[in-house]
């Protein structure tokens, strides 16, 4: 999270003025302008953040931005372009000087090389001994597009381009620090700016453990040495320059943004070939996941605070960051995105652990400080009383939920801290009453491990955990066979029995049941039994809607599976309903970029049109 004063913020009017320029998507046939005027605000629990000075409609583009500096992650160096971070084609283009970084095109190669390479491309022998027609063709494909004229040409790779491999050896945040330092010096030479004026990032160096501080100092010495020898770095190798670099690395660790790509978990994409929506052809039910491919600093993007119940969504086209409102936002309401964990994905304990380890702060958002149904049921056991729908929590969850109960009892029941969540507060309270009635009837209520939050009945947690673990082994075995595409009847039968065990042990809204239902849906689909596949897919979605809400992007992904099964089974009317619902969800999160981000969405729409739906 970035921390700046109001006075400092006013020094950068371009950060808060409406963006009227065309985005990168213009080059892809989609023209959309950012016209939101942002302002820096201060909150009692999160410090400074960003808010809008006007109302924002759902799905509206709030902000788009090129990175100040970016670096590819190590595991993607051989598979993704080092500039745009898209997957490399078979005929990738190496750096013309050192041949270490790989690019998807000469266009990306020139952008990574900066203005100098761009200007000197004609002098590199590319057009020697070519006919006039070929020379004209080479000029067309290597010259920058009009849309690139607004991109700041900084040679982000030139200081690494000496035939050495330290950028491939050092951690990404260290290499990123080197790129930021070099760019800052280049800018200082041109317009007298400096690193603090350009970024002004907050950091958590004071809270870093001693052993980690030692690592930071060692890395700063190594990086300075590398920069001196490969770039002729002007900062001396002394205590002052090392301390500046240590703080910069600390700032990157807190403020950098992961550039991600959407990928099907089994590596197969239905857009790679024609999809046969028929009982014989089966349906597509693979899970999607976010894969980190790069790490970057965005001058404005780092100003947005985190919430486990966000009201904006960030995504990437190439290396351009897009931020879009996922719900209607009133004037002055903080604009908050997720740094990774969200309510419905993990419980409060795991979210807090992740954010503390990755970003060095304790989250105080509404999802982490106030009771919500999702956190109560996500990993809960069911009550032994067959007539009770209450939850039974283990000791790890109880600690965090009791802190919320204390806060809940000290505030009016219709008062929550984040304005954009007030509309769902009544629904949330109704859900809490259903699974934790005692929180509403006992003003001094504290949850106890193993005891139902509605009727107080006790459950043996040790035995319950053992039962769930054993049942989970059969579900995991089925998942392995689904991945290998060889589902055995005995494994499927064992998994069905294990699902019944999970349902008798875990709460009905426990995420573990949703994951088991999803696994069974994939297995039945794989063997061509589409009716049970549809049944299990719907059961999984019903639970996930309780955990995330019915309009969350996760529900969109699950509806892609369901609509595929429905089309394959011939239930075209139901398929059209599912396709319309998932289209609305993805339009909210991606706007006109939805088909670009999710090509399979276009496949489903085309199939629906083919059927005349």
Write a concise synopsis of the structure shown.
This protein has 23 helices and 14 strands.
Q: What percent strand?
A: 5-15%
Give me the Rg, rounded: 27 Å
Number of helices: 23
Distance between the termini: 47 Å
> Within the largest sheet, what's the order of strands?
1-2-12-9
- Helix fraction? 40-55%
Structural class: alpha+beta
What spatial form do the alpha-carbon principal axes imply?
A: globular
Number of DSSP-assigned strands: 14
Largest sheet, if any?
4 strands, mixed
Please tell me about this protein's structure.
Helix 20 runs antiparallel to helix 21 (572-590) and helix 20 runs parallel beside helix 23. The strands form 5 sheets. The protein has a 4-stranded mixed sheet, with no helix packed on it. Strands 3-11-10 form a 3-stranded antiparallel sheet. Residues 1-23, 146-151, 411-417 and 420-427 have low confidence and may be disordered. The protein contains 23 helices and 14 strands. Strand 10 and strand 11 (320-325) form a beta hairpin. Helix content is 46%, strand content 11%.
